[in-house]
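Lecture notes, unit on protein representations.

Consider one protein chain, 109 amino acids long.
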Amino acid sequence: MRVHLIKRQTVEDYMRSNASSKAAFEAWLMAIRYADWYQPQDILCTFNSVDILGKGSDRVIFNIGGNSHRMICKYLFGRKVHLFVKWIGTHAEYDKICKRGLQYSISEF
């Protein structure tokens, strides 16, 4: 199924405010444009460095730009795959979120 990115503007805003990430996020956006997923494990076929969170969170962590940036998205499989951007930041910022256990619930956008 095709992927419908919710809050693409959030990704574009992040690219503008973090110019060094632009090429990596553009490559990520291009990859999801052509992705064809039917179950969460299919995300690994497109991005082999993702982390699919457990605990019923329906969330995935994308490692972007050689793991310089992280993006937390919630996924919903239906007629399409809806991918909701929940948080974007640097790897160091993500580590702080993880120490507090917020990767399962954070919703900044």
